[in-house]
Design goal:
Layout (H helix, E strand, L loop, with lengths): L19 H11 L5 E2 H7 L6 H13 L3 E6 L2 E6 L3 H15 L3 H10 L3 H12 L15
Antiparallel strand pairs: 1-3, 2-3
């Protein structure tokens, strides 16, 4: 039997960080041109994950409203319920809302932006770019 207490300091247990697998599944779905089955998602992920593990993650994401699904043979094919930009923006807003000091969080966030991202943010805040803007920092006005 494996004894965790005997592990060397700094050794990893092989377990993923909380949310890492969900993020990997979402990334695979965002990168796909069409909905994917659990088997297809499993093939897109690194490592040798069990099919049932991927199916569990897909079911959890579906239950959270993050995925939509439709029948594909005897199972389902899954796709993100929202585009990646919307999902990321919602996560950022949620993190900001749960922080104790909004000003400190926003100050730190802005201070760590690249020069191109800071210029893009300034343009967006000043209203010079409409909603049709793709968000690419290398585009002109």
């Amino acid at each position: 039997m494996h004894d965790r207490k005997s592990e060397k300091p700094g050794a990893t247990s092989g377990r993923r960080a909380r949310g890492e697998l969900e993020s990997g599944v979402l990334a695979a779905l965002y990168g796909a041109p069409q909905p994917l089955t659990a088997r297809q998602v499993r093939n897109e992920l690194p490592g040798d994950l069990a099919y049932t593990t991927v199916l569990t993650i897909l079911s959890r994401l579906y239950d959270k409203g993050m995925l939509v699904r439709h029948r594909a043979g005897r199972g389902y094919a899954y796709a993100p319920a929202r585009d990646e930009a919307t999902h990321t923006a919602e996560r950022m807003r949620s993190l900001l809302e749960h922080g104790a000091d909004r000003e400190a969080v926003l100050t730190r966030f802005v201070s760590e932006l690249s020069e191109q991202d800071e210029q893009l943010l300034q343009r967006l805040l000043s209203g010079h770019d409409g909603p049709q803007h793709s968000g690419r920092a290398d585009e002109g006005p």
